[in-house]
């Protein structure tokens, strides 16, 4: 097996725009906001950046195709810029491109930036759009909530968990994330909610109510990466390095073969196994300090707790209800408020998650700073549908951990 | 050699709009509608049209019968979804029939339904393979028109030919009279009708007896020997008046299904014939007469073979598969009779690439998937690499039809976010018993349906999307609870 990415690349600087309904800003304005913070944090000049990766999902709603929009927005000096799109993992994919470029020795310093400007559709929720000329002939008329909602029916049937217990555990997840988001000045939704409010909210796609769904917002996040040696030469201490970057894409088994029961993510399990191995983590429940998962819907976060091998299969309800994942629990999940409170500007989300892990590792997370010193922080993106998707997992941590 | 009907099938949509709800909405304007406010009318779902209903009736007709020998597919309707694209051809495709086939549409008259059958019987005398004859109607009617109350949506199908006929043709006769009781001109959406009393006295009561009497005289059957008289017109008492005038036994007058279905337009004489066959016994003589610019009259005698016809749902089975719809606004919305705010999500362009469709026609219209000749794994859609992770063989996929297979629900939801003409949109992962699965739209989920993981589902041919910008529509198969549609079996 390949040696992997562990400790080969360090984060030099990061930035993140305020997420929200940025009615008066174009995607370019959001990009610059994230970039300015990242560049200042890195303490370098623009001219030191050797290459850039640009992550965005639904480009037809804002910047259009190619990497040119990033290069133009940041006035990059004609360096290589690559646009990546891989559903909701687009931001993490941009990061992976930059990290691999540095690890390969092709670049000393590389930039990854993700952005999405979703609030120009005229309605709530993700843009309704076509799925491809052949897919449109036979794909179900499925929205994102409707696709993910089905995890609940399959999970309940498999594990014999009754609907009410599921719904309450899902509600706890959303309440927890709103608590966390209320302490984050960059989050879109900063109000606290309670379980009753979640349970009684209007139904979006059964059993997901309004508060089981993450917000939709505009936002951008940016990372600048380099080798640990260069980072140190630039005066950086207590480096946060990349421990693992894994991606797993569905191959049609879940969608077309009867071996999948619909209650979990095949890709997440595959990516998690490889990521832990790459990071040298053998007991994730004991070793992961913090994590951000792709809580596009409460049910996604719920089953992901098991697919990342933190909760035992069939036991997520107990862990969730016991507060294991709360900000003051054993392993806080979405300590920044998650997609739930940040919304999900597709290209930005993966980098926004890494940004929080980076801040927490450095003790810079302000009011929501985890007091037990974090060692390993994990992020997870899940793009597509439970039956055909991409999953990306990134683990960052203290250098040498 | 004698010709006749080899098999029959019927289809009535599940929703039954309560006529009292229509009347309640409109008696302020036309108090006369109160007289039509009894009972219920069959109401097609938003994703049904005359082609999809014809397909269901045909599937019912072909229950446990061989499709290989079918030599022609005819369809009659005055509400065809396509003016230029053969509708019978879509039916044939959905039934996965081979292309060595004669296909033909019959249209433009309330008599098309019976004329199509008469023609099919004539052709069958030539000794070709069995002919599949279908007829369906989803009539467009103006709000508050009497026709809106008396009409219903539905379909019938017959396999016609020689050999083991369940009903032999004793004779047929047509009177062609250009009597214009109503018409629908080019580019018009709705019928324009003349006074009912004139239609009854000068139309029904003069033209139909002429056709029936000529038929009886030709076939040498006495009027009093008729067991069942199918006359499709909704107007009250007309069939009984005709029977009296012609000398048919009063008991022969068949139920015109006005109470629980409504008049299914040009298909209705055939829906009534299918219904009559369901309730018949060998030796029965069934007389069918229609009305529309003249009258067709056909006479059948039921044979012993009817006892060996495999059981089917028939009109009765589908009448029993019923949900009482009390929301007239839904009917108005389905028929675009109100300017509903559908939201920006409804604006998505539903353009179909005709090249894309033709290339994938087997997948979309016949629901053909693949089966690996090496490992036996079935998959949908068919692709040239086996989905079985332990196989993955290339080029081993053989055509494998999913349309008639039963599946079970693996997961599901009711989605209120995505645009659907009838929210919430129900869909879920269905898993076929013999292998293969699909994230599938569900259809005909009524408020009384309690969907559960593990629930058996069957596929139905439906409209997938309407492209209103270009007047096209694409079809695909959707899952519906199997139990609810099996009542007639």
TrEMBL record, chain A:
It comes from the Bacteria. Residues 22-227 form the Thiolase N-terminal domain. Pfam families: Thiolase_C_1, Thiolase_N. It comes from Sneathiella litorea. SUPFAM superfamilies: Thiolase-like (SSF53901). Residues 265-393 form the Thiolase C-terminal domain. Keywords: Transferase. This is Acetyl-CoA acetyltransferase. Signal peptide: none annotated. The keyword Transferase applies. NCBIfam families: PRK06157.1. The keyword Transferase applies. InterPro entries: Thiolase, Thiolase-like, Thiolase_C_2, Thiolase_N. One of its GO terms (molecular function) is acetyl-CoA C-acyltransferase activity.
From TrEMBL, chain B:
The keyword Acyltransferase applies. InterPro entries: ACP_syn_III_C, ChsH2_C, ChsH2_Znr, NA-bd_OB-fold, Thiolase-like. It comes from the Bacteria. Keywords: Acyltransferase, Transferase. GO terms for molecular function: acyltransferase activity. It holds the Pfam family ACP_syn_III_C. Residues 418-462 form the ChsH2 C-terminal OB-fold domain. GO terms for biological process: secondary metabolite biosynthetic process. Transmembrane segments: none annotated. The keyword Acyltransferase applies. Residues 216-295 form the Beta-ketoacyl-[acyl-carrier-protein] synthase III C-terminal domain. Residues 368-392 form the ChsH2 rubredoxin-like zinc ribbon domain. This is 3-hydroxy-3-methylglutaryl CoA synthase. It comes from Sneathiella litorea.
